[in-house]
Amino acid sequence: MRSFRPAVAAAVLSVLCLTTVAACSSGSPGSSATTTPAGAGDAARTNPAHPPVNNPADVKILEGITVAGDDPAVTPKVTFGTLPVSVGATASRTLKDGTGAASKAGDKVTVRQALFLGSTGKQLQSDFESKETPAFTLGGQDSISGLVTALTGVKAGSRVLFAIPPAEAFGDQGRTAAGIGGADDLVVVADIVSISTPLTQATGTVVAPVAGAPTVAFDATTGPTITVPKTAAPTTLVVQNLIDGAGAQVKSGQNLTVHYTGVVWADGTVFDSSWARKSPASFQIGTGNVIPGWDKGLVGKKVGSRVLMVIPPADGYGAQAQGKIPANSTLVFVVDILDAS
Q1: From CA 67, how far away is CA 253, in angstroms rounded?
Q2: How far is the C-alpha of 224 from the C-alpha of 19, rounded, in Å?
Q3: DSSP element (H, E) containing 239
């Protein structure tokens, strides 16, 4: 469930996630695989939400980097005065100050970013041309801790430049697939697109369950427990609210933040749960970045809703097995819609 697998969509990899997700924060519906990089240290896996300390020596290093260009569809031109860039702790410099309240622990920060290697200045990734706007939960467990630190205390509309040392990124093993070595600092230019504070769970009007559907018991700490009836699985998509939320209606193309649990209809096996990770998932909805059942089932729902979805293979993974999900499986999800932005 945490990864946007090839069966879901050919999505852009956000390098700064601990898992191979297309829109960071916590993952994606449909696959049970989890991919924490080998060698990532404790700092990479623990994400306290606090702003950078900004040691003066590290700030001076950032002052030697110039950033030019303000077209949101074009990657800024970044010029490094001195290489390599090496900081003692995550350091940040605000290039353009935004408005509104500063981001805090638990907020969702949506960004447009470009990533560079501190050792050579090589560009590794950019969201500017791709028009991707990944979202990161401050305190979530799927983003490197330096990123969470750098994005805490920022305002919407800001442009920030920050550097992250290996200890607060991917540890001494780096991330080979992305071209990041164990001694490489990371340099990022990020435009802060929006900041929001997601709900912690669904809230609204409870809806009476439909006879014959999977039953759901809910615990505020561990999330939903789903019991599948011992009957034949539906052959078409089933979507029903368990709680009617009162928030804004979800629109195609929005970045959605949810808590979810997924089980296999055949035996009730839980194959993934954001509740177990204590970290909601954020991803773009309605654009093919998640399995079709999610795009069909969640667009049009309201923020605050808790949604039960029974997804046949044609709207899930079809004949392709995914970790604990056998081929041709009908899937059952309970999804709390926490935010749409």
Answers
A1: 29
A2: 23
A3: strand 238-245
Q: Two tokens at 228?
A: 């599948």
Amino acid at 98: G
CA torsion sign for 159, 18, 124, 62 is: positive
Query: CA–CA separation, 320 vs 261, rounded Å?
Result: 20
Give the integer Cα–Cα distance in Å for 38 and 46.
15
Q: How far is CA 160 from the centre of its chain?
A: 20
How many other C-beta atoms lie within 10 A of the C-beta of residue 212?
Answer: 10
Query: How far apart are alpha carbons 186 and 79 in whole angstroms?
Result: 14
Amino acid of residue 189:
V
Structure tokens at 233: 């699985």
Q: What does the pLDDT read at residue 46?
A: 59
Tokens of 132: 């991707």
Tokens at 309, concatenated = 């979805």
Q: How many residues belong to the chain?
A: 341
Report the DSSP beta bridge partners of residue 264.
Answer: 331
The whole-angstrom separation of Cα 178 and Cα 317 is: 27
The candidate with the shortest Cα–Cα distance to 283, out of 339, 203, 322, 200, is 339
Instruction: Profile the chain (341 residues) by mean pLDDT over runs of 10 residues.
Output: 30 50 41 37 58 93 97 96 96 96 94 96 93 83 87 97 96 92 96 95 95 96 97 97 98 94 97 92 91 97 98 96 95 97 88
The pLDDT of residue 47 is: 65
pLDDT at 143: 82
State the Cα–Cα distance between residues 288 and 5, nearest whole angstrom.
Answer: 12
* C-alpha neighbours within 13 Å on the C-beta side of residue 57: 5
- The beta-strand segments (E) located in 174-222 are 186-196, 204-206, 215-219
Give CA–CA dist 77/171, Å, rounded.
Answer: 28
Instruction: Report which DSSP code applies to 249.
Output: B
- What counts of helices (H) and strands (E) characterise the chain? 5, 17
